[in-house]
Design brief:
Helix content of chain B: over 70%
Number of domains of chain A: 3
CATH superfamily of the largest domain in chain A: Cytochrome-c3 Hydrogenase, chain B
Number of helices of chain B: 12
CATH architecture of the largest domain in chain A: Orthogonal Bundle
Number of strands of chain A: 8
Structural class of chain A: mainly alpha
Order of helices and strands of chain A: EEEHHHHHEEHHHHHHEEEHHHHH
Radius of gyration of chain A: 24 Å
Number of helices of chain A: 16
Oligomer: heterodimer
C-alpha cells in the first residue's frame, strides 16, 4: 500500500477544537506529521489594547474555558506588579483555592478525554461525573461553573464563608477517594496500560530541548513547577510535592496528573486550615502607572506567562499571553515519530492541548507579494470579507443591477 | 399455494426480515441501555434504535463522486440480506431450525462473514482515506478472530458427529451433560464475537477518535440505516447461534418454555458483550492480532482437543 495522508483536523472527532495534523501513513505506521496552527485566532491581545484594565480582566478570563482562572490571575498579578498594589493575604488565599479547584477539574476532565481517546468511554463517564463535584464547588464559591470572575485587580470579588469551606473539605474527601480509585485503575487495568505504556515517548533531553512544560515535562523528569520555583499567591505558605515520573510516555503523564490531583487536595486542606482574616481587596487605580511586568502562573497544563506593558493610561499598551499549550505543541511531532495511527489521538490529547488558548500569534508575512495592513484597514477588510462570504454583498448586487438594469426599469 | 404462502411468511415475518429486524433493534436497545447503566448514565428509551433507523431513512443520501456507485449501493443490502438469511438455519425455539441440512453450520458462518466483507468492500468503494483505512483494519481483524470462532463452533459438531446446527442441537438434547464440555469454547466465541460485531476492544474498523467512522464514514441516509440494521441483526443472529450451539439445554421443551428460555440465553450473551465493551479499552491493531493468535487461537485448539478426545471416548 502506497503512503496515504489522512487529515486529523481541522474537523475531527478526536479534536475538540480546530487544529490540523496531516498524518502520512504507510499502513498503520506514521511516516510524518505536519501541523498547522491558527484556526482559532481571535485577536484577543489586540482587543485588550482597546479596552480598559477592568474590561481586559474579564476578556482574558475568556481565553480558555478550562484554565480561565489561570489567565485572569496571571494578568492581575502583572498589573498589580506594575501598580505596586499589595493584595491582602485573604485574597491571595482565595485565589489560590480557586486555582487549585480549577486544577482538579482540569485534570479530571483530561482523564475523561484520555479515556475517550483510547475507546474507554466508561472512564470518561466516571471521571466527568466526579468532576461535577468540583464544578459544584466552584459554583458555590464563585457563582459560576466556568469563567469564575472571582478576580479583581487588587483582590477578589467574593468572600468564602466557614460553611462553604466545610463543604469544600467534604467534597475534597470524596474526590480524594475517587482519585485513589483511578490511580488503582491506571495501575491494574491491563488494556488501559497496554494503550498508554510506551506510547508517545519523550526523553528528558528532548523534553528540555523542545521546551515541554507542566505535566508533559514533569512526566519526562523535567522537575519544574512555577508554584515551587517562583512562589506566587499563597504557594509560599503551603507544603506540597512536585510530582515527576520517569516513564516518559503517556502512562507517565497520566500518573503525574493523578498524583498532582492528590497534591491539590492536600494544598486545599492546608489553605482551608490557615485562611487568614482581613480585607478582600485594595483599591486599584483607574490609570495604571507606566511600566511593564511579566507574571508566571502554573496553570493545569503548564506555565502560563503574561506580559503587560502600561503607558500610564486607562488602557494597556501591550498584553502578550503565552499559553502552556504553545510550549508543549512542539513535542507532539517528536512523540508521534514512528508510531501508529491508533496512537495519534491519545498522544495529542496527552499534552492536554488547548488550541484556542494557543492560537494567538498572527503570522508575520515576510515573503514578497504580501501587504501590511493597518489596524483600521484590517478591520475594514474583515467586515468586507464576512459580508462577502455570508452572501450579503449588497454593494456587488448594486453594481450588478447598475450594469444590467432589469427590463422595464425600476418599478 | 399454502406452501408458497408459508415460505413467503417465513421470508418476510418469521424468522425472516421482520423478526430479524425487530430482534436486531431490540438487541441494540438492550446493548445501549446496559452499556449506559454500567457507565452510570440513563441510557436511551426503548424505541430509540427504531427512531434512529426511521430518521436515517428520511435523511439525504450522499455518494462520493469518486466512489464505485454499484458496490457502494449494493453493500448495505448484501450485509442485511446475509445476516438475515443466517437466521433460517439456527434452531431458535426448538431443536429443529426452519431450514436444516448437513453442513448448514458452515453456511451460517459463511453468511455471518459476508457482512464484514461487505463493510470492507463498501468502505473501499467509497475511496475516502478514513474508510480505506477502516476497511483494511476490518479485513485484517477478520483473519484474527474468524479462525478461533470457526474452530470453537466446529468443536460441538465433532462431538455430535453432525455439521448441522439442528443436528448438534438434537444430539445435545440427548446428551445434555456433554454440552458442558463446550464452555471453554463459549468464552472464546464471546470474545471473537466482539471482533465480528466490531465492538470495543475490537472496534478498530470504526474507531471514532482515530478514523472518524471508519468504513461507514461516507455512508449516510438510507444506506447507513441498512448498514446499522445489518450490524444489529448480525448481533442477534450471532447471539442466537451461540445460544443454540453452546447453551443447547431445554430446546425440546414445549414452546411456552423455549421462547422465554431463548430470550434469556440471548440476553445473557448480550449482557456479557455489553459488559466486556464497557470495561475494556480499544486495542491497537497489532495488539489485537497478537491477542487473537497468542491466546484465543490456542484456547480454541484446546476446545477442539477436548471435543476430539470426548468424541473418541464416546465412540469406543
Amino acid at each position: 500500500m502506497s503512503p496515504v495522508t489522512i487529515p486529523v483536523g481541522p474537523q475531527h472527532p478526536a479534536l475538540k477544537e480546530p487544529e490540523s495534523f496531516d498524518i502520512t501513513l504507510e499502513g498503520e505506521r506514521i511516516l510524518g506529521v505536519t501541523m498547522r496552527l491558527g484556526y482559532n485566532h481571535r485577536g484577543i491581545e489586540k482587543a485588550c489594547e482597546a479596552r480598559s484594565w477592568v474590561q481586559d480582566l474579564f476578556l482574558l478570563e475568556r481565553i480558555c474555558g478550562i484554565c480561565s482562572h489561570a489567565h485572569s490571575t496571571a494578568f492581575c498579578m502583572a498589573v498589580e506588579d506594575i501598580a505596586s498594589l499589595q493584595v491582602p493575604p485573604r485574597a491571595q488565599f482565595i485565589r489560590t483555592l480557586v486555582g487549585e479547584l480549577e486544577r482538579i477539574h482540569s485534570h479530571l476532565l483530561w482523564l475523561g478525554v484520555a479515556g475517550h481517546e483510547i475507546g474507554l468511554d466508561t472512564l470518561m463517564m466516571y471521571a466527568w461525573r466526579d468532576r461535577e463535584t468540583v464544578m459544584d464547588l466552584l459554583a458555590l464559591l464563585t457563582g459560576n461553573r466556568v469563567n469564575y470572575g472571582i478576580n479583581l485587580i487588587g483582590g477578589v470579588r467574593r468572600d468564602v464563608s466557614a460553611e462553604q469551606l466545610e463543604q469544600v473539605l467534604r467534597s475534597i474527601d470524596f474526590l480524594e477517594q475517587r482519585v485513589r480509585y483511578y490511580v488503582e485503575v491506571a495501575r491494574t487495568e491491563s488494556t488501559l496500560h497496554q494503550r498508554l505504556a510506551g506510547v508517545g515517548p519523550l526523553s528528558m533531553d528532548d523534553a528540555r530541548r523542545l521546551g515541554a512544560i507542566g505535566p508533559t515535562g514533569r512526566a519526562s523528569m523535567v522537575d519544574r513547577d512555577t508554584r515551587r520555583d517562583d512562589p506566587y499567591l499563597a504557594y509560599g505558605e503551603v507544603q506540597f510535592k512536585v510530582i515527576t515520573d520517569w516513564h516518559c510516555d503517556v502512562y507517565g503523564r497520566t500518573l503525574v496528573r493523578l498524583g498532582e490531583l492528590l497534591e491539590s487536595f492536600s494544598i486545599i486542606r492546608q489553605l482551608a486550615a490557615r485562611l487568614p482574616a482581613g480585607p478582600l481587596k485594595v483599591k486599584a487605580p483607574r490609570k495604571v502607572p507606566a511600566g511593564q511586568a511579566v507574571a508566571r502562573y502554573e496553570a493545569p497544563r503548564g506555565e502560563d506567562l503574561h506580559f503587560v506593558r502600561s503607558n500610564g493610561t486607562e488602557r494597556p499598551e501591550r498584553v502578550k499571553v503565552r499559553a502552556p499549550t504553545l510550549a508543549n505543541l512542539a513535542s507532539v511531532a517528536k512523540m508521534l515519530e514512528n508510531h501508529r495511527l491508533a496512537d495519534v489521538p491519545i498522544v495529542i490529547a496527552a499534552i492536554d492541548p488547548c488550541f484556542s488558548c494557543t492560537d494567538r500569534a498572527v503570522r508575520l508575512a515576510r515573503s514578497a507579494g504580501c501587504e501590511r495592513l493597518s489596524w483600521a484597514e484590517l478591520r475594514q477588510h474583515g467586515i468586507d470579507w464576512y459580508r462577502r462570504e455570508a452572501g450579503l454583498d449588497l454593494a456587488a448586487l448594486d453594481r450588478r443591477l447598475a450594469a444590467h438594469p432589469p427590463p422595464g426599469g425600476p418599478p | 399455494m399454502t406452501a408458497v404462502l408459508a415460505a413467503l411468511l417465513a421470508l418476510c415475518v418469521f424468522p425472516g426480515l421482520l423478526f430479524a429486524a425487530a430482534g436486531g433493534l431490540a438487541a441494540e436497545f438492550v446493548d445501549r441501555k446496559l452499556h449506559a447503566r454500567m457507565q452510570n448514565r440513563v441510557g436511551p428509551p426503548w424505541f430509540q434504535p427504531l427512531a434512529d433507523f426511521v430518521k436515517l431513512l428520511s435523511k439525504e443520501e450522499l455518494i462520493p463522486g469518486q466512489a464505485d456507485r454499484f458496490v457502494f449501493r449494493a453493500m448495505p443490502i448484501l450485509a442485511l440480506a446475509a445476516a438475515t438469511t443466517a437466521l433460517f438455519c439456527i434452531p431458535l425455539f426448538g431443536p429443529r431450525a426452519i431450514s436444516r441440512f448437513e453442513g448448514d453450520a458452515l453456511v451460517v458462518l459463511y453468511l455471518l462473514t459476508l457482512p464484514t466483507l461487505s463493510f470492507f468492500l463498501g468502505g473501499w468503494a467509497s475511496t475516502s482515506p478514513y474508510a480505506s483505512i477502516g476497511s483494511m483494519r476490518s479485513l485484517t481483524q477478520l483473519f484474527a478472530y474468524e479462525v478461533p470462532l470457526l474452530m470453537v463452533l466446529m468443536a460441538p459438531g465433532l462431538l455430535a458427529g453432525s455439521w448441522s446446527l439442528s443436528g448438534m442441537a438434537l444430539f445435545f438434547q440427548a446428551h445434555a451433560l456433554l454440552a458442558l464440555s463446550n464452555l471453554p469454547g463459549l468464552c472464546v466465541a464471546l470474545v471473537a464475537l466482539l471482533g465480528k460485531l466490531e465492538k470495543v476492544p475490537f472496534d478498530l474498523a470504526e474507531a471514532e477518535t482515530e478514523i472518524v467512522a471508519g468504513t461507514f464514514t461516507e455512508y449516510s441516509g438510507r444506506r447507513l440505516a441498512f448498514f446499522r440494521l445489518a450490524v444489529d441483526v448480525e448481533a442477534v443472529v450471532a447471539a442466537s447461534l451461540l445460544a443454540s450451539v453452546f447453551l443447547p439445554w431445554g430446546l425440546s421443551l414445549p414452546l411456552a418454555a423455549t421462547v422465554p428460555l431463548y430470550l434469556f440465553k440471548v440476553l445473557a450473551v448480550l449482557f456479557v458483550l455489553a459488559l466486556l465493551r464497557t470495561i475494556l479499552a480499544r486495542l491497537r491493531l497489532e495488539q489485537m492480532l497478537e491477542f487473537c493468535w497468542k491466546w484465543l487461537a490456542p484456547a480454541a485448539m484446546l476446545q477442539l482437543l477436548i471435543s476430539v478426545l470426548l468424541a473418541g471416548g464416546l465412540s469406543r
